[in-house]
Write a structure and sequence with these properties.
Helix Hairpins, about 0% strand, elongated, ubiquinone
């Protein structure tokens, strides 16, 4: 395992650990998810450059577009919850309310 791949794996796991442990603010959840997606994107890009196959070259681009869609919908949810609830604390959100 190369050093770069090890560091990317550790960054993905740190993002996952932050997602599990620090669920106080909605913004911190979105940042942890973006960290995980960035690590996945870099790992897929490294895999594509190592294997030199044309069939797997589209995968990092698809992951990047999915990440952009996830970020935009996450920020839209952040704006909507901060307007309706006044804060982005996760304790104030109740999923049973309509």
């Amino acid at each position: 395992m190369s050093t770069t791949l090890f560091l990317l794996s550790v960054s993905f796991l740190l993002g996952l650990l932050g997602l599990v442990l620090h669920r106080i603010h909605f913004m911190s959840i979105l940042i942890c998810i973006e960290t995980m997606m960035l690590a996945l994107y870099l790992m897929m890009t490294m895999f594509t450059s190592f294997t030199n196959t044309s069939t797997s070259a589209i995968m990092p681009i698809l992951l990047l577009s999915m990440s952009a869609c996830e970020a935009s919908s996450g920020l839209a949810l952040l704006v909507a919850t901060s307007r309706t609830h006044g804060t982005d604390h996760m304790k104030n959100l109740n999923l049973l309310k309509c």
